[in-house]
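DM from R.C. (forwarded with permission)

"hey, sorry to bug you on a friday — could you get me a structure for this? deadline for the figure draft is monday and I only need the backbone to look sensible"
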Amino acid sequence: MTTFGHGMANFEKNQKPLAASDVEVAEAFSDFNALVAPQAFNANSQEALTKVREGVHPVGKQSFTKVGSYMAYRLREKNGPQALDSYPALGGFAFFQDYIALTKADATIPKEMRFTATFETLVTEMARDWDKSNFEYVRQLWLMPDSDLNAVAKKLRQSFVGSTVYPSLVNSFFNVTRQFVLQGERVRAQQTSKLALEFYPEAPTANFMSGLTLILNKDQPAAIAALKKSAALNPGGPASAGGLNNVAYQLAGVGMVDDAIAVLQIAIQLYPKEANLYDSVGEFQLRKGDKALALQSYSKALEIDPNFGNAATAKEVVRKLSAELGAPQTNTSTPK
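My reply, with the result:
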């Protein structure tokens, strides 16, 4: 529902549609309709999801934000200044349904500013499921580390049964899983991540959580599969090279250095050409006193990319460790 969230936020901030002209609005609707068409997902679902995510960003011409802000403009114009106040509680489906109803009732809205019949039908069907599952218990649910996860799971299964669309609690699951991870509660972390994946199997964050907790519980093959899926769903997300590197530093920051190294070793299998990952492994190995291994890791980072971001420091560490260990120093100078 990025169209709803970003579009509403943009309109409320600027009090006018993001698109500067009707031509630009029509182009945005055209892009939107093409990107959410079933054939786009049937042809290549991962590529389609990536383009949908880009729809609120400049790389995607902010088409989804333009559509959402225009919808907000039209709904306020028709129903008055207070018309938009109810949508944060009702959700994005009500926003879309009301705009679709408006386009059917108001012939002055050009066909270029309307959704396809297929999308309108899909919204109606999804909204029906949403209305069944988005009830008070789910809206008020706030997971905490001391929550009874078995009771929560039972209630959510009852609430979501038969629905194809239901409220997202991924961030709540993520926050609890993260707390368990950083507290060393490996079993409870994995239990929480399993629940997130059960309810949101196509969510990048849920797959990332699963991958991380599987690493901590020593199931590398399953961890790699989960992280690959997370990265495929969101290449720049938490399962990216940078995301995994960041997680490793968080683990090391609470004294879980061995786990940080384990995460980085998996990350290296996924991204073998990322010099910074080897550099980070070397740093943590050095922190443990494993100087020979650290020398290998730093040297590998420089072998992959002699000019990566931390190359100057890595070269100095390699020089010092080579002298200390009496090891021949690899040529780490920049090729000419």
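R.C.: lifesaver. The chain has a mean pLDDT of 89.
me: no worries. The chain has three domains: 2-133, 137-272, 273-336.
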